[in-house]
Amino acid sequence: MDNVIKDLKDIYEFEYVCYDLDNDREKFLNFDENEKLPVIEFVDNNGNVLKTINGEHSKKEVENILISLEEK
Q1: Phi, psi of 52 (to 5 degrees)
Q2: Distance in angstroms (rounded) separating the CA atoms of residues 1 and 44
Q3: CA dihedral 17, 47, 58, 23 (to 10 degrees)
Q4: In 3-state terms, what secondary structure has residue 69?
């Protein structure tokens, strides 16, 4: 998913923060351990989670989410 996000970051303006489950355990305390990885949260400037997706997604799927969130 890193490549998908980095490609889209070149097109759309957004901040991307990546956490590693092994190195950043405290960031994952509120997640269900059975959730499909990766977990991607789309967050606004106030820290509100607008949408969460789990698992691998295509570039087009993620792009559609970004477009729909821009429209709000």
Answers
A1: -125, 135
A2: 20
A3: 40
A4: helix
- Residues 54 and 41: their CA atoms lie apart, in Å, by 9
Buried-exposed string 22-58: b where 16+ CB fall within 10 A, e elsewhere:
eeeeeeeeeeeeeeeebbbebeeeeeeeeeebeeebe
> What pTM did the predictor assign?
0.83
- At 7-54, the pLDDT tens digits run 999 899 899 999 988 899 898 888 887 888 898 999 999 999 999 999
CA distance 21 to 11: 27
